[in-house]
Amino acid sequence: MAMFEIDAREVAPRLGLAPGEFRRLMDAGRIALLCERGVGEDTGRHRVTFFQGKRRARWIIDADGRFDPI
Fold this sequence. Notes:
Layout: H1 8-14, H2 19-27, E1 32-37, E2 46-52, E3 55-61, E4 67-69
Antiparallel strand pairs: 1-2, 2-3, 3-4
């Protein structure tokens, strides 16, 4: 299983939040997280999406652990 972290200071602004507010909402279960593992030609890649209301912040993580926001 892959392990990686995305800093709240990167996610929060993409959801229109301050980092502290982002953390509070995550702790309260008001921000959802979806992590998808690539298959086929995307094997070794992951797509991570944070959802808060109608907003979302999404990253692709490659096999080397590099993050690219999309």
